[in-house]
Specification:
single chain; 202 residues
């Protein structure tokens, strides 16, 4: 990265490739940042030691791959809610968006910590979660995580007896980060171009 790259505006999101990239990156960020930062906070002064332990690193790797499809579902719901007013046919747009997100998932080879069967199960669960998006009105960004926050916390590589009292903090992290993702998407999207792109994917 050059000296002035930090100050350059991020490129607009106006086609399927850019949208897929955004959903992929933001989903991974949403899930991984929470896992890593919470684990470091819980470990305290021992964080550096903990993050050098292979057993813990393996647990983190397992957690982040289990969480990634959940992140895809949340970010997709956010994107769908923003784009819904621009859809000529809402059902077709939603189907196209679901297909695009599944293609993002399918880019990744089977993660070694999970294995083929669990990765197939995660995909099937992602399909179910994506289908739920069409069954209700768009939510505020900060409400999207509500059905999934406990599921996310259960994936953390920290014993449940140590993390239970921290649930409100983790949920607030999800809410705040989803609001930030919503703001970035709203600024960068070309809504009509994306609606046209999704309309021809079916």
């Amino acid at each position: 990265m050059g000296l002035f790259d930090f100050f350059r505006a991020r490129p607009p999101i106006r086609d399927a490739d850019a949208l897929a990239k955004f959903v992929d990156e933001q989903s991974a960020f949403l899930m991984q940042k929470g896992i890593y930062e919470y684990s470091r906070a819980r470990a305290g002064h021992y964080a550096k030691v903990l993050f050098k332990e292979q057993g813990f690193l393996d647990a983190v790797e397992y957690s982040r791959w289990r969480a990634y499809p959940l992140g895809l579902a949340m970010v997709t719901e956010l994107v769908e809610g923003v784009l819904r007013p621009y859809a000529a046919d809402r059902d077709k747009q939603l189907t196209a968006l679901q297909d695009l997100v599944l293609s993002v998932f399918d880019r990744y080879p089977v993660p070694a910590p999970l294995g083929a069967q669990m990765w197939r199960d995660e995909r099937a669960e992602l399909v179910r979660r994506l289908q739920l998006i069409g069954m209700h009105a768009p939510k505020h960004a900060y409400d999207i995580c509500e059905p999934w926050a406990e599921t996310y916390v259960d994936l953390f590589p920290i014993h449940e007896k140590l993390r239970g009292r921290d649930f409100p903090t983790i949920r607030n992290y999800l809410r705040a980060t989803l609001c930030n993702i919503h703001e970035e998407f709203s600024k960068r999207m070309d809504a009509r171009a994306l609606a046209s792109t999704l309309a021809v994917r079916i």
